[in-house]
Amino acid sequence: MNDVEAIRGAALDGVAHGFLGRRGGVSGGVYHGLNVGTGSDDDAAAVAENRARATNAVLPGARLVTAYQVHSADCVTVLSPFEERLRPHADALVTDRPGFALGILTADCAPVLLADREAGVVGAAHAGWKGAIAGVTDTTILAMEGLGAKRERIVAAVGPCIARASYEVDDAFRRRFAEADAENDRFFADARDGHAQFDLEAYVAHRLAAAGVTRVEMLGLDTYADADRFFSYRRATHRGEPSYGRQISIIGIAD
User: Fold this and answer.
1) By the 8 A CB rule, do 108 and 230 touch?
2) Which residues 6+ apart lie within 8 Å of 128 measured at CB?
3) Which string of DSSP letters, residue by residue, matches 179-204?
4) H or E element: which one contains 255?
5) Terminal CA-to-CA distance of the chain, rounded, Å?
6) Is residue 148 helix, strand or coil?
7) Which CATH architecture has domain 6-163+199-252?
8) Which range, of 54-58, 80-84, 92-96, 147-151, averages the lowest pLDDT?
9) Helix, strand, or coil here: 18?
10) How far is CA 241 from each of CA 32, 46, 235, 250, rounded to the nearest angstrom?
11) How distant, in Å, are the alpha carbons of 131, 169, 185, 190, 192 from that of 195?
């Protein structure tokens, strides 16, 4: 593996961005590929090299900025660099400053990259089901507006995440979404008794559209089903693997 694969969204054409999987990295074993997870048990030097490769594949020379993700709806506005050990506990980042590569780590959750080209404002959100239902995309849009963006100009792409066919949940999970909004049941398909299949990608896209984002692209890439291309927490769990890697999605503003 020598070439990092950076998947682009048509909605973000002209904006420096990429949804990266596991191709092009130096890690071995269960982390084989481009594992960027500093919280994993992977070799720290390999993770550092993978993070550098990922950044250079999207915005060469930029400083990678990531958060300590906690499945929240919290968003941080990045105006100056902060040290890796001082990462804020949050699940979204926005900036209007050139030279920063905003990075979101996932391993089945939905990465969302957003941009207002006219205002020169970008954002990145980690939307697992907890953050998604709590409104992480809404807080990201609000933070972008705080930097001068307008939501009707914002475009967004939802990157590789676990697909409905791979995402079985129980009835309690389904009820949680129905209690938040009865119309949310359309994101579920009946499965075996007491269970359903949840469409995280479609739900996240719906939240973006409901917030006023007029162009939302869904890449339709299933992290669980494509082991050669993506890391997946659920797949690793089902296989009884001792750990799992994390992939990264990056967006930034070129100097």
Assistant:
1) no
2) 71, 108, 109, 110, 200
3) HH-GGGGGGEEE-STTEEEE-HHHHH
4) none
5) 29
6) coil
7) 4-Layer Sandwich (3.60)
8) 80-84
9) strand
10) 13, 20, 9, 27
11) 21, 6, 13, 7, 5
Cβ(100)–Cβ(252) under 8 Å?
A: yes
Task: Give tens-digit pLDDT for 106-121.
Answer: 999 999 999 999 999 9
Identify the DSSP state of 205: H
Sheet order of strands, 247-252 included = 6-7, 16-20, 247-252, 100-106, 63-66
Cβ contacts of 239 within 8 Å, gap of 6 or more? none
Do 230 and 22 form a contact (C-beta atoms < 8 A)? yes
Cβ contacts of 48 within 8 Å, gap of 6 or more: none
SS3 143: helix
- The strands making up 195-198's β-sheet, listed across from edge to edge, are 168-170, 195-198, 188-190
Q: Over range 64-86, report the average pLDDT.
A: 94
Write out pLDDT tens, residues 174-227.
999 999 999 999 999 999 999 999 999 999 999 999 999 999 999 999 999 999
Q: Is 35 in contact with 50 (CB distance < 8 Å)?
A: yes
Eight-class DSSP state of 43: -
- What are the residue ranges spanned by the domains of the chain? 6-163+199-252
Query: CA 143, 145, 146, 147 torsion: positive or negative?
Result: positive
Q: CA 9, CA 156: separation in Å to the nearest integer?
A: 9
